[in-house]
């Protein structure tokens, strides 16, 4: 096993972590001042969302300069201090690599749009219009057409995300060389890897063919024409050969729409160009695929469905490649609101979800604030939101489309990206201790009760439970290496699985829901299984044969004989 298979990653959204200079925006010195908080939690690797100069449209994912730090986040020397502080504590730093697109303010694009014969023209994807409209019906992820007419040359450019995020042309070897060089720049500064943004969108199907018309929007997502495209593996293998193979670093690709088989190719230990990927199957469970905008919908799903999806990745990738484990990030709602209960059972359900995250096979990712058990923000006014995706939805649906604002706000409450982007609550005091100025986005209204100060002072808090789980994961190789077996796939609320490795077997019991569950007749816990960790009972205790609402338990059995008892 490699260091990145044994690691736990903590994701930082710098804008919202901690502001050290009072401008209302989190920054690098803010992060550096909290390294002991992260070290105590026990995480090994920090993934830093983009801190480069940017166009101000998509939270840093619209880059204007790949080799510098945006002034609001600090400077390159500040960044070097952060890296040194991490390395001094034995921790590592992973940077965000956003190379499917740039900002439209990037010097390459400013050049490219000047004329059709500009040397940078071919860095991007340009096409003439068709019948007075865009070249094809492809929609952008953030609404509207994925093609934007540029009046200077009367041609359209492709942008799979915001209009201000033109897609790079990966068929152009000069573009690929630029990317390899910028990667080398950061690697030579001593970073420990890359999280690769939307990396399986680099290769588009030639000709940009139309996709099937969407339900009630003119421009559907043409995923079959840009996810896992024909040249993707060629590009990523070249990237590995030219750059990554020369360093001991980790890579994780953001790859919507991949199957375990495709993931096995991408992350094969010998031939795979990446170390691990983010798959999205469990993110789709509560979406309505028949809707025009599935990701904004919320539909019920069953616990067996969740088990099927997670279990499929556990078994089909085992021994073939490597997965990452996540239940939240800066693009999705807070996990306790989405998969748990953010009301009366907020704390036990946050702990249960953490138990799941840390006891499956794969590298776990903790998104900032989840270790505090923060729920969704649910602002009552659209004026409090900042995310381009959310504001575009509101504009298209309410302002232009005349839909009921309350219904659209509810979608935003459930699925909006700003749920995860509110400032980290460090204290219950002014501005949650995040800034001495005015925060760039309002605070989560729960900050007076749910903040780092309160949580650190409470030995039973979500934070300390995360710390215990991270330790547990380190001490039990069966979690990293073992086989996974779902014991009761059909049960409507019990998620029970084994993690089996050499002479050790772990039994994980998760009661997914607000009802107590009597295990009698459902599952026998072997008499000599020892409780390692639970969110109700203490290690070493013999808890009752009834699981409390959202109760989670991790047991260990050691001898081969005992292991047989559960097979
Ligand atoms: C990824 C990022 C997201 C961003 C998008 C475009 O999905 O995680 O935040 O908006 O790519 O770069």
Automatic annotation (TrEMBL):
EC number: 3.2.1.10
GO BP annotations, alphabetical order: oligosaccharide catabolic process
Keywords assigned by UniProt, alphabetized: Glycosidase, Hydrolase
Family matches, as InterPro entries: GH, GH13_cat_dom, Glyco_hydro_b, O16G_dom_2
First-level EC class: hydrolase
Domain (Glycosyl hydrolase family 13 catalytic) ranges: 11-421
GO MF assignments: alpha-amylase activity; oligo-1,6-glucosidase activity
Keyword Transmembrane helix: no
SMART domains xref list: Aamy
Keyword Oxidoreductase: no
UniProt-listed NCBIfam families: PRK10933.1
Family, per entry: Belongs to the glycosyl hydrolase 13 family.
Protein name: Alpha-glucosidase
Species whose genome carries this gene: Deinococcus metalli
This protein's encoding gene: malL
């Amino acid at each position: 096993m490699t260091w990145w298979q044994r690691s736990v990653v903590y994701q930082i959204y710098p804008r919202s972590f901690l502001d050290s200079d009072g401008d209302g925006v989190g920054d690098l010195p803010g992060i550096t001042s909290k390294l002991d908080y992260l070290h105590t939690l026990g995480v090994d690797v920090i993934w830093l969302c983009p801190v480069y100069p940017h166009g101000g449209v998509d939270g840093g994912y619209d880059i204007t300069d790949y080799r510098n730090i945006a002034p609001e986040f600090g400077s390159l020397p500040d960044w070097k201090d952060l890296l040194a502080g991490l390395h001094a504590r034995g921790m590592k730093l992973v940077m965000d690599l956003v190379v499917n697109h740039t900002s439209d303010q990037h010097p390459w694009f400013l050049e490219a749009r000047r004329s059709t014969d500009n040397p940078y023209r071919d860095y991007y994807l340009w096409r003439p219009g068709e019948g007075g409209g865009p070249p094809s019906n492809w929609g952008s992820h953030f609404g509207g057409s994925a093609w934007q007419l540029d009046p200077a040359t009367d041609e359209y450019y492709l942008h799979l995300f915001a209009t201000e995020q033109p897609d790079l042309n990966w068929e152009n070897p000069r573009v690929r060389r630029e990317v390899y060089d910028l990667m080398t720049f950061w690697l030579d500064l001593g970073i420990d890897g890359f999280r690769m943004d939307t990396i399986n969108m680099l290769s588009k199907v030639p000709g940009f063919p139309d996709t099937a018309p969407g339900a009630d929007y003119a421009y559907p997502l043409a995923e079959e024409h840009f996810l896992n495209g024909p040249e993707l593996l060629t590009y990523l293998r070249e990237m590995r050969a030219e750059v990554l193979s020369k360093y001991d670093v980790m890579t994780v690709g953001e790859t919507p729409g991949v199957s375990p088989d495709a993931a096995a190719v991408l992350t094969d230990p010998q031939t795979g160009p990446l170390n691990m990927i983010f798959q999205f199957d469990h993110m789709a469970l509560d979406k309505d695929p028949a809707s025009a905008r599935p990701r904004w919908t919320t539909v019920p799903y069953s616990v067996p469905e969740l088990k099927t999806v997670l279990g499929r990745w556990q078994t089909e990738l085992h021994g073939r490649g490597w997965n990452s484990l996540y239940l939240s990030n800066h693009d999705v709602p807070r996990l306790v609101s989405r998969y748990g209960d953010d009301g009366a059972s907020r704390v036990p359900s946050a702990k249960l979800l953490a138990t799941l995250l840390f006891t499956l096979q794969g590298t776990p990712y903790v998104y900032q604030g989840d270790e505090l058990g923060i729920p969704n923000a649910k602002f009552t006014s659209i004026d409090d939101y900042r995310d381009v995706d959310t504001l575009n939805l509101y504009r298209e649906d309410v302002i232009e489309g005349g839909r009921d604002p309350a219904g659209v706000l509810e979608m935003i409450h459930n699925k909006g990206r700003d749920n995860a982007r509110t400032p980290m609550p460090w204290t219950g005091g002014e501005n949650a201790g995040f800034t001495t100025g005015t925060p760039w986005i309002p605070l989560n209204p729960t900050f007076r009760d749910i903040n780092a100060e309160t949580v650190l002072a409470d030995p039973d808090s979500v934070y300390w439970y995360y710390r215990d789980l991270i330790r547990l994961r380190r001490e039990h190789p069966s979690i990293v290496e073992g086989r996974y077996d779902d014991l009761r796939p059909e049960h409507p609320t019990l998620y029970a699985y084994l993690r089996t490795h050499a002479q050790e077997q772990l039994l994980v019991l998760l009661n997914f829901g607000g009802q107590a569950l009597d295990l009698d007749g459902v599952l026998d816990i072997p008499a000599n299984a020892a409780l390692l960790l639970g969110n109700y009972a203490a290690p070493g205790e013999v808890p009752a044969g009834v699981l409390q609402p959202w109760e989670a338990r991790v047991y260990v059995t050691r001898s081969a004989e005992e292991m047989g008892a559960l097979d």
